[in-house]
């Protein structure tokens, strides 16, 4: 029988939809909840557990919102260890849970969170026990996460069935959230975790740094400006490629947030998910997004403000993807990824999608249905 440990950081990613660009620290989580954010980590954990139904697994977890709730909803009868104070879980709870599960001799610890949670796990157990992350945070720079919750479950299922899966050390990285909110990315290496490696399902460490192909970015920006339509609202996603478009238009830009423009004017900066819904209701709207270098995500990493409700309203035909060909080549043939938190929507957005790669130059590239 496969012995699986399960740890959920229940507040992971809670700051994303309200534009806080992280969830580290109790004060940030309290602020996010006060702004109307809804925790998603347990839902994403349930999605990860779905591929494990019916497999020969003994599941160990912590009480309530740290794993027990998700496990029971997914149809498991977990063995619950440890104790928590509901509604007040902390990094110390995560570290204690990881140590106790490692001491219990689990075959793998499956955990839901972001880079801060990965840091906690790394600090607690290092690479002594294999782990795999369910992506639930705002920041996912570490290489220890599956590309989507469902992909995490698929990797665990492969292990349970005894299929050949390589174990390899992967980097744990995290950024300074205060600098991140000011538009600066300062990633730091914190160690390595032992992770089951399956190329289709495990994300790569994010490639940092600004795009240096200035001429190509100028061409992409010129193509976008030429094709802009009057009286259409354009949601401008995060990232340096979209920033180049805003620079070309002479508009202020939130590098790590989401802005809204219409008729050449900036009408909303660093908007939350609810603000985006309110400000696009009843208006012709298009979304402009780019590809995370090295990872391939276009939805679900750093742009959780783009809610499933908004994406359904827009429709696939109103999503404009922009990226340099060098950024696409970094993927080495791996598909683009949509991780909206809604499996049906992910499926609807899969398939070939047009990517603007220069002036009157575009390619078709595959979006995976993970």
What structural keywords apply?
13 helices, Rossmann fold, 370 residues, alpha/beta, 9-stranded mixed β-sheet
Spatial shape: elongated
Q: In the residues, how many domains can be counted? A: 2
User: CA-to-CA gap between the ends?
Assistant: 26 Å
* Structural class by helix and strand composition: alpha/beta
CATH architecture of the largest domain: 3-Layer(aba) Sandwich
Report the order of strands and helices: EHHEHEHEHEHEHEHEHEEHEEHEHEHEE
Strand content: 15-25%
Count of individual beta strands: 16
Portion in helices:
25-40%
Unreliable segments of 5+ consecutive residues: 208-212
CATH class of the largest domain: Alpha Beta
Average of per-residue pLDDT values: 86
CATH topology of the largest domain: Rossmann fold
Count of individual helical segments: 13
Secondary-structure map:
Blueprint: E1 2-8, H1 26-34, H2 41-49, E2 57-61, H3 68-73, E3 79-80, H4 91-103, E4 108-113, H5 115-125, E5 131-135, H6 149-160, E6 166-175, H7 177-181, E7 187-197, H8 214-227, E8 233-236, H9 240-249, E9 259-262, E10 265-268, H10 273-280, E11 285-290, E12 297-299, H11 308-314, E13 319-322, H12 325-329, E14 336-338, H13 343-348, E15 351-358, E16 361-368
Parallel strand pairs: 1-2, 1-4, 2-3, 4-5, 8-11, 11-13, 12-14, 13-15, 14-16
Antiparallel strand pairs: 6-7, 8-9, 9-10, 15-16
Helix pairs in contact: 2-6, 4-5, 8-9
């Amino acid at each position: 029988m496969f012995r699986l440990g399960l740890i959920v950081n229940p507040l992971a990613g809670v700051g994303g939809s309200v534009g806080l660009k992280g969830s580290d620290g109790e004060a940030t989580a309290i602020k996010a909840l006060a702004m109307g954010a809804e925790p998603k980590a347990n839902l994403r954990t349930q999605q990860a557990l779905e591929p494990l139904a019916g497999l020969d697994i003994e599941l160990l977890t912590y009480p309530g919102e740290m794993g027990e709730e998700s496990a029971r909803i997914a149809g498991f009868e977990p063995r619950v260890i440890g104790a928590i104070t509901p509604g007040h879980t902390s990094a110390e709870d995560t570290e204690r849970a990881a140590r106790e599960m490692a001491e219990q001799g689990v075959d793998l610890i499956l955990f839901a969170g972001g880079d801060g949670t990965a840091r906690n796990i790394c600090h607690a157990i290092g690479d002594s026990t294999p782990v795999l992350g369910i992506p639930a945070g705002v920041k996912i720079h570490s290489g220890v996460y599956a590309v989507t919750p469902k992909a995490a479950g698929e990797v665990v299922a492969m292990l349970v069935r005894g299929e050949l899966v390589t174990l390899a050390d992967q980097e744990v990285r995290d950024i300074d959230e205060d600098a991140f909110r000011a538009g600066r990315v300062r990633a730091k290496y914190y160690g390595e975790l032992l992770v089951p490696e399956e190329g289709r399902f495990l994300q790569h460490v994010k490639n940092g740094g600004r795009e240096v192909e200035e001429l190509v970015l100028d061409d992409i920006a010129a193509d976008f400006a030429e094709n802009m339509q009057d009286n259409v609202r354009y949601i401008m996603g995060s990232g340096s490629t979209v920033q180049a478009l805003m620079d070309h238009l002479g508009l202020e830009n939130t590098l790590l947030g989401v802005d809204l423009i219409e008729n050449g004017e900036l009408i909303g900066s660093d908007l939350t998910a609810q603000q985006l819904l309110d400000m696009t209701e009843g208006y012709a709207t298009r979304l402009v997004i780019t590809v995370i270098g090295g990872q391939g995500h276009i939805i679900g990493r750093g742009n959780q403000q783009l809610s499933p409700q908004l994406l359904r309203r827009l429709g696939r035909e109103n999503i404009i993807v922009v990226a340099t060909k060098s950024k696409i080549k970094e993927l080495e043939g791996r598909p683009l990824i949509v991780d909206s938190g809604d499996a049906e929507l992910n499926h609807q957005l899969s398939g070939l999608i047009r990517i603007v790669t220069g002036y009157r130059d575009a390619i078709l590239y595959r979006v995976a249905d993970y």
